[in-house]
Amino acid sequence: MVNTKIVAIAIAIIAILGIAYYMLAGFQKPSPQTPTPYPSQSQTPTHSPTPSPTPTTQVPGIPQASKYIVIAYRDPQPIDREQLVPYSNINPGFLRDPVMDVLIKAGRITTDAEIRRIIYNAIQKLSNDRLSLIWLAQAREVRVYWNWIKNIYFHPTFVYRVDDLYKESYAPNPNKLVIGESEEGHSLDPAVTYWGFDWFIIHQIYERLVAYERDNVEYVSPSLAVAWAHNEESDEWYFVIRGDVVFYDPWENRTIPLTPNDVVYSFRRVATMHLDPSWLIEEFINVDETTVLSEEEFRTILANGLYTEFKGASKKVSSLEELLSFFGYSGNVAGFVKVKLNFPYAPILSVLATIPASIVSTEVVEAHGGVRPGEENPYLYDHPVGTGPYYLVEWAHRQYYRLKANPYYWKGRPAIEEIELRLVPEDSTRIMMLKKGDIDIALVPPSLVDQVRDVTLDSNKLIVDVAPSFWIYHVTLNCERHPFNNTLFRKALAWAIPYDIIISTAFNGLADQAYGVIPRGMFGFQDDEVTRYTYNEDVARKLLKESGIDPKSVSITIIVPQGYSEQEQIATILQSSWSKALGIDVKVQVLSRPVFNEKLMSGDFDVQVLAWGPDYVDPDDYAGPLQAGGYTFADVTLHVITSASDISKYVDTSDITVVTYRDIAIVISKAK
After folding, report:
1. What's the chain's Rg over C-alpha atoms?
2. Which positions carry the signal peptide feature in this UniProt record (predicted)?
3. Which domains does the chain have, with CATH numbers?
4. How confident is the model over 501-551, as pLDDT tens digits?
5. 126: Cα separation from own chain's centroid
6. Burial (Cβ within 10 Å: 0-12, 13-18, ≥19) of residue 332
7. What whole-number distance in Å separates Cα of residue 562 and Cα of residue 64?
8. Of 47, 237, 303, 315, which residue is most buried, by most CB within 10 angstroms?
């Protein structure tokens, strides 16, 4: 039998453990002596019984270990090149890596906390060694705003939602929030964009079934769903859809009622379009078996018993009234949806809080082009129609966005009635506007943050908040191209980077060196079995020589997106250090966001500098997008044993890959 509290506890623990670091004032490595509680499920994939440690029999090619995690796979298939989507089924460096894919899949399907931690420890180790991306720094988050803005907060996944804030009555334009940003967005379609700035705007317009309340990170709260429950296996989830909610269509000045069909349509749309963020839906949700239920159908299912959790409490429920009472809801209901998962996945509610899970209007999409496989919808690009607290009034490209309060919002009108996001590419101009009070809150690069400290305007002052974050800056190397397809050459580049100068210059000291794909403070992080790269010309030149590549034959172009000071500074430092240490020709090219994005997603680049932040707080959200190896498998299973002689029961030992972490060995091979 399954522990009926598994999902609630697992989600809470994933959030709490993953965010523990975020809540601290500084960077701290989790103590390896502190065990991580995480309940396991007696379901597929099953783990073989783990007896007390006994002496192991040495097997050729397999080291002695206290425990063996055997990962068996069947029918590995490389994904066709035209089907590869960076940050989805292939890492942005396009490095093919079936071993990494097996580990990522294993991390997703196991529900044993300790096994999952070890798998991500191993992924961290491999990401540090294989270097499709060179890990630079984990940056702190800097936010600069006038003290007349109240209720502002930090959240590791979403910046903030404006309807949570208000301005003092004495503030300039007290009903309007003016935000200074640097970049032009890519799209306002939640099924298309994977850029943080776009997500901030979409977060104000669209809503999802569940949401985080302000800076809470321990659990999600009801949003368009007022209650939820799941079966005993945790692979079928049921959502009660909030009644009396409408989409506001400002383009045709009309309202459209939210229905359960919109929920199913939205998930299927993301999967069908199969664009940048689609993995967040496709990997976990079986959209074909996700359906609308009638009230009679849902009551019949409930009568057999379902399990629900909220705010740390859990309960088995057998009636709709009991379920709604558990969530404290007594309003109208629009209907019911069953979401079928591909496999039980503890953080699924956190996934459903991400932007790609936003609910769109079926009527609006179908009236304006519908859904076409692999294609964007031109209308939804800049005509968002959501149920959220704001709606888009105007997007003046490369100038500003204007949003106004949704008069039909189900929570009521927010205190701030208008939002203006001004696009000011020049840092100096943006900072000057902020100091004058023309902007309420602005993007200020860490390298320039000292310019806005101790700034006052009449009796008001600028607030400079610095908080820990999970943002990791990295260099992406195009491993489909020569010479980046040479591992030794990639390592030579890594040893020719002055990480300390990057941290002191680009981040003004507000960052720490990163050593792998899992950020410090997140479940699965380790830095005790990684290479600590530093600037070392001797090591870099030795590796370059061993790679067999003539530096005089190499010419590298580093691309960075316009409006990102940190990336531009990093690229300039790399240009200097790689040229000096390795004698290669390096150029830097600053591109507009649309051009940069096209090159990034198509693989038309040598090197690029970018950063990654969490969609949801789990190591899978880093390992998957940043390390996926471009393979699929018919099946992946896990077996935990203590005797090496038992490995051959599960896999072919003639061709194995072994990854060790401390005294544990992960053995990967084809299933018998």
Report:
1. 25
2. none
3. 6-41+63-139+470-635+642-670 (3.10.105.10), 183-410 (3.40.190.10)
4. 999 999 999 999 999 999 999 999 999 999 999 999 999 999 999 999 999
5. 20
6. exposed
7. 51
8. 237
